[in-house]
Amino acid sequence: MSGRSVRRTIAMAGAFAVTAGFAVTMGTGGAGAAPATITWADGGKNFTRTVSNAAPLEGEVVTMSTTVAGADTINWFEDQRNTCLTYKKDSAKVAGIPVALQSSGAGVLRVAGNWDANTSPVFEFQYVVGANCPREVALNTGLKYGAVASSGENLNLGPAYVVPKNVSTTVLNPVGPLKAGIESTLTAKTLGGRAGDLVKFFSGTNEIGTAALDATGAAPFKWKPAANQAGPHDLTAKFLATPFAIESVSAVQSVTVDPGDQTTQTTLIMPASAVINVDVVIEAQVSPFPGAGTVTFKNGMTELGTAPVGPDGKASVTQNFSVPGNKSITAIFSGAPGVGGAPGFAGSTSAAKTLSITDPGATDVATTITLNLPALAQKGQYVFLRANVAPKAVGGTLQFFSGPEPLGNPVPVKDGLASQSYMFTVSGVRDVRAVYSGAPGYLPSEASGTVTVQDEPVPGEPGAGSSMPTFGS
């Protein structure tokens, strides 16, 4: 190809190498769409080939045009380019007139006809820059042609073009209220990236997590601040540079992570066994005392009932089971808000406990309860509530009630005896009921009595005036 002259008008200085034996001149290209042009002679014909934009961005349309001038007739013309450029349908023209493609292949388009080169016909094709185009490297173009007098090709002379990296933009969506111990979603959106590209999230200079862009350009990250992360945070999202896009960082969002709720523990208090068709008290203790919220009791997935949590952190339901078998009981505390800006109380779930419900057998012994209750009790002072289960039952528990209210926790029955220390807080006559759960070989039973609660001390009672007797059972 010696003797040919070459001229290039290039948008980016240094983007193209100087081919030995060809003269190259640099034009003053702007930041916009600057073309690249080369000229040469071949087979008695002069060729001028231009790429409309030597630095096209992803998604932009570029035009490859070649002028052929000389005494010859062009029978066919092939335009060659990198396969990352997609042909724009019906864009092929010769001498300004649309023409149909004779054939198309990987990186090659052909048109066929009879064009007089004396009229300097222009062969023109348009392409869309694909997302898979390599970035910041020179991509050459070329051509082949067939003519009556002579045919030829110039597959890699050019002109070349360079696809810059995408200029990305990253935005951190508005961040809602944040609380320590509670999971929230931070979402960044990036223009110029692609699915799978990574976004890092920062609090100041501390990285808090990473997420990948989805097909919509969004990167959601679930953040659960720890208790020691309560306080102010300056959040940003940083899109990481890739071979196809430059990095970008969102604007800072200043947020505050509120102190988290206190953790709680919920514990079940209930008998290990009971018989069918007998009331069973199932109680839960929430610690520390939240003073609010509810506890939902479940048998497996079946809800047994929901009760409010009292000032002492306790909640209970009374359940009657008509079908024997093992019941898997759990208690779920709902959580409770704080008061006066104080941290609230997080929800919690108890460990499951098994309640064995049996059907009394023909040989089970009927039982009776004899109550041993104080006739008088002073409000605010502990007294003992005692019961004797006859015959001497072995196993099972006994629960004291006043109306529907449990008086303390179920206590075990040993050698037919059970006792509970309890403090009445309201004066008046209180009904007291004792319910024996039953046990293998012993049927359940219950008995009732009364205790009169007064404001004044009870004279002559052992321990009168003391605030807490020794607990016994």
Any key phrases for this structure?
six-stranded mixed sheet, 48% strand, 473 residues, disordered N terminus, Immunoglobulin-like, 0% helix, rod-shaped, 41 strands, mainly beta
Count of individual helical segments: 0
Name the overall outline: rod-shaped
Number of separate domains: 4
Low-confidence stretches: 1-31, 463-473
**Helix fraction bin:** under 10%
CATH class descriptor name of the largest domain: Mainly Beta
Structural class: mainly beta
Mean pLDDT: 87
Cα-atom Rg, whole angstroms? 44 Å
In total, the number of strands is 41
CATH topology of the largest domain: Immunoglobulin-like
> What CATH architecture of the largest domain do you see?
Sandwich
Domain Bacterial Ig-like: 271-358, 375-453
Organism: Rhodococcus daqingensis
Keywords: Signal
Signal peptide: 1-33
Q: Can you describe this structure?
A:
Residues 446-473 are annotated as: Disordered. This is Ig-like domain-containing protein. InterPro entries: Big_3_5, Ig-like_fold. Pfam families: Big_3_5. Keywords: Signal. This protein is mainly β and 473 residues long. It folds into four domains: 36-162, Immunoglobulin-like (Sandwich); 169-258, Immunoglobulins (Immunoglobulin-like, Sandwich), CATH 2.60.40; 265-358, Immunoglobulins (Immunoglobulin-like, Sandwich); 368-454, Immunoglobulins (Immunoglobulin-like), CATH 2.60.40. Helices cover 0% and strands 48% of the residues. The protein has no helices and 41 strands. Strands 1, 2, 3, 5, 6, 7 and 10 form a seven-stranded antiparallel beta sheet that branches. Strands 16, 18, 19, 21, 22 and 23 form a six-stranded mixed beta sheet that branches. β6 (93-94) and β7 form a beta hairpin. Mean pLDDT is 87; it is low at 1-31 and 463-473.
